[in-house]
Request: fold
Amino acid sequence: MLSFDDVVARYEPVIGLETHVELGTQTKMFCGCPTVFGAEPNTQVCPVCLGLPGSLPVTNKAAIEATVRIGLALNCSIASWCRFARKNYFYPDMPKNFQISQYDEPLCSDGYLDVEVDGELFRIGIERVHLEEDTGKSLHVGGATGRIHGATESLVDFNRAGIPLVEIVTKPVPGIGARAPEVAKAYVAELRDVIRTLGVSDVKMEQGSMRCDVNTSLNKLGETWGTRTETKNVNSLRSVERSVRSEMIRQGNILENGGHIIQETRHFHEDTGESTSGRSKETATDYRYFPEPDLVPLAPDATWVKELKAALPELPRVHRARLTAEWGLSALDMQSILNAGAVELIEQTVAQGASPEAARKWWLGELSRHANERGIELGDSGVTPSQVAQLQKLVDEGKLTDKLARQVLEGVLAGEGDPAEVMAARGIEVVSDTGALTVAVDEAIAANPDIAEKIRGGNQAAAGVLIGAVMKTTRGQADAKTVRELVLSRLSN
Amino acid sequence: MESLADRTAHELSGMLAAGEVSAVELTKDALGVIERTNKALNSFLTVSDVQAMSAAKAVDEARARGEKLGPMAGIPVAVKDVLVTKGVTTTAGSRILEGFVPPYDATAVQRLRQAGAIIVGKTNMDEFAMGSSNENSGFGAVHHPWDLSRVPGGSSGGSAAAVAAGQAVAALGTDTGGSIRLPAAFCGLVAIKPTYGRVSRYGLIAFASSLDQVGPMTRDVTDAATLLEAISGHDPADATSLEDPADFTTGLDRGIKGLRVGIVKELFTEGMEPEVAAAVRRGIDQLVSLGAQVEECSLPSFKYALAAYHVIAPAEASSNLARFDGVRYGLRSPDARDVTEMMMRSREEGFGDEVKRRIMVGTYALSAGYYDAYYDKAQRVRTVVIRELEAAYENFDVLVGPTAPCVAFKLGDRVNDPVAMYLADIATIPMSLAGIPAITVPIGLADGLPVGLQIFGPHFSEAQILRAAFALEQSAGFDSRPRRDFAHSAAPQAKPGQP
Reply:
């Protein structure tokens, strides 16, 4: 059994990614139905998105605009004239049994996206960006697994049918060797950040508003590219990396044993990190693409495209470079912030008044640890940048010690409210009343006469023991600096 | 028995306005004729008697309140069953949609209602508008009102028979390759296929999206112009809908002195019935005597139009008809073990032979490896047809030819020979491919059956071809009064109704 390292020592991977992004338009791609996630099944439907006889599609201009903006952000050429095409295949959750998509005339083509992995820059070529409609969702009931096998009934929810979907396809990415899994992940993360910056989608992989298919092939060093597989159902950034890694290992072992890679679709399983074979491409559907006759061609006006380009926001890479300078960070510091998915969180925390160092400390420290332990995204911990800023303010004002602040943060993470509320509810506060502290200090001195003597003798380092004792009796609520001052002043000659 | 619905819409509109007749009386008459004759003709699949009577009552009440009503208000109209009607069964002539009740109205239907027209029912048709004789209906053939042993033409055969028999004053049909013009010619009616995009296709159950158009079928040119005006106009729900304003009735009687008319020689095909050709020639002579400058011209690409059409239309149909799978509506085969089998069996049981044939042809034409040889080549032919027509319109205002190479043929004559059936559309297909407007007007008889002359112009030239048709109609003097003398006809497949 070859390990990952063995595989990359003998084989060269080529990867390619197809990413689907559900646009956050108010209405669907070809009708006026709303696009709210999680509504009751079949409540956001009309004759058009149900494919009722006689209904016709009408293009959503906001979706075209969003797609052109994505294309521009990915350095693509925007077609001056292109058409939608019908992709024909039968599937029960596809209302018309064809999907309106684009075929040989995509709206955007031939661009690139630069991504960084550990300070190294990779330029990922973008083959095309096109627009299509999403399908409905099938639910299989009565079986044990929720899958179609063993189910007694299948239900279809068409709320998602017709939601605008942008497909972003990379060119094949060769020459990245052992970095392939990380580059794949970095690409998807960067793409997600670009799209989020554009404000055209909420790009939530766990809700399916961003979905990834990963193509992988291996070839012997110096030889022509191998047969590729397409892994679907890759629904988190972590899975992107894992799926490339596991597919490289799987293919490497097959090749090493003299086998052949079958061109097929594979399904990734989040729980095991492995994929299983789906349908073989050898019996692939012939989609019988032809230009959609119900729609007129798209001809984006050159001036309009120019205006959209000029109005693009600062894109993540440029933005990060600016923040790195503003926050006085090294490139490596920024990389670790980026890896943690904390750029935006830290930025918002700084905007709420915290210093960049403090904000970074919280998000990369306590909060990252918390997120990792639970296997969730950093932004999904339930703590807002505003709460982190509030917490830091309390520390800066001397109302909390670092240690107490961590206790308060626990409360915030547990959903007990804002830091001030947690402090009140849990009775956490810095004891700065010198009267109360003096009593505690005197008790500590009385209990440790040897130590007291040492301090009187000029050994200030010995004060730590007494400070520790005071902290213990005050259950950590005293300000260590104040306690130290008190100890020294009581024992000064 | 005399019926008010035997008159033209413009005549009745005057009578309604003058209070000589009410919409309720008129609708009752039309419904009465339907009741007496539908068994023999099989022209209606659904009769909306209750809704029609209440709509008629509403029109009479509006008139009594002094509301200003348009020329179609109170006029009984039949609607081809390929246009969806809210709350009224719509089948497109197919068993796969038996019992399907749409939740919305087609835009053309909605506009009819807004104009105050009374929709008396939904008319029989070739399944999914695929056919030239109406024998491909999933609900039985329609019979020709002049001779029950003959076909009324198709695919809008029910609409044609309804108007020709006085079951309705006018009707909506749809035309993909001749489906309103051919039955209108066979039944002695006027019908116009508008410029592609003139009438919204929203709610028209698609056969071939790039060709389908809704149009009026009437007993004279004035009614055709009036009804077309009522249903035309931009519709935001149809991306291919045009913005061009519609005024077809003004100046209809202006005459055709100096009109440059080209006779397209390719439309007089080899297999054409000589008597039909002679009748059409007589019609053209009348154009000359009306002051038109008539010359012969040639559009060689017309020879390839039929073949190109029978690639493009089935290709689009194969995709358009994919949605009929038993999942959401229509027929669902009950015995399937899984969803794939359910879809396959529902389609197997629900579609008729001609529909299956066209789905297979269309699927083949779009398949990988055949696309270029068939679909792409057919689209190139289509482009050539358009170019040749554009060139011809440099020299001519309108072009003319026969609407069909034959008169209404006998039921059963062509059902076993698809190509012979397809040839009935040979003279109507080029205009569909080019998306230009074309009108058929009855010009005389051949073998005692009506013959239509076809006039077609450039895009948006409806007003012009209507004017030419109007002039010709005046001089031809064709008697388009409804016929219900079924007793004199041999009707082997149908029981004659009451005379």
